Task: structure prediction
Amino acid sequence: MIAPFARCPWIAVALSVLVLAAPLRAAESVEMLTGEIGGAPYTIARPARWNQNILLYAHGFKAESAPLAAKLDANDPAYARLLAEGWIVAASGYRRNGTILRDAIADLNALRDHIAATEGAPHLTLLLGESMGGAIVTLMAENEPGRYQGAIAIGAALYSKDDVYPLALTARTKIPVIFLTNRSELEEPAAYVERAARAPVPPAHWTIDRDGHINVNAAERTAALEGLITWITTNQIERRRDATLPGPTTASTVEFAHGAARGRVAEITDGYGNLFSSFVPADFEKLGLQRGDRFELEINDRSFRVVYGADYPDAARGAWVAFPRAEGVILFAINRGNAAEAAGASAGDVMVVRPVGKP
Result:
């Protein structure tokens, strides 16, 4: 049981649908609205029938040279479920890239207020932030309790420091916050949760028994959202929990010949240049690749030496790394770099993986 906070009976009515929902139905038509507020781009996914609840997404660090963008995938299973229940799901880019905290909060507040002005006052607004976005929503939970009723911080980069307009964490959360953290990044969130034990609303810390940075699948995100909603509606939460859930099992579609495997680029992460591929872990097992092995990647007549690891730091800064993601596929990336730019890659491009030493 967590210390009480202000609640209204209509919140429980508005939210109980999601908590008790049957398996996901296809959402009614969703309108995608885009625009810009004060130089910060935004994307809003609006269902045909709004239930007056909002999920607002805060993205992580992007290189200063990356274009400003507010990417939002309405088909993401966690978002699709909310949209099917009538939620608005919205994402704000920020007025600049790089490390940005105070201005990012202002941009997210502006988007929330824009929705309220154009659609009507929301019953409640929840926050979801990843990496630096996790630090941003934690700061908002400390400083913006009037606008927001709860937050989820995934892989929260609480060490983020904004030298332009500094803003420091106080460990005084005033609304429910669930930290969702991979096992390889437990130290910072765990220390914050310990510091915040006497906060007006102490946060919860749920862990994912999987290495990586924000290496969380859709089922785990949905469970965290349901946990947050239960917290808001019942004032009860498991302060610490192993929130690991099985991810999707993806069938292999790659072709094998002469000791190599041929797949494709499935998707490129916006602003980061990481390559989600059609390769699955079973494909690398078939090639005889184990964690720590190096292999050759051929793409667009270019060849790269790649280490098979568990996370970005398994490769040196500027070097290629590949590792399984919670979504059930292999991600190719450059540690602190842009793999898509280095390879001149686009979605659909052929990727050939060949273990070193194989013909």
Q: What stands out?
A: The chain has a mean pLDDT of 91. The first helix runs from residue 9 to 19. Helices lie at 9-19, 77-84, 102-119, 132-143, 187-195, 218-234, 281-286, 339-343.
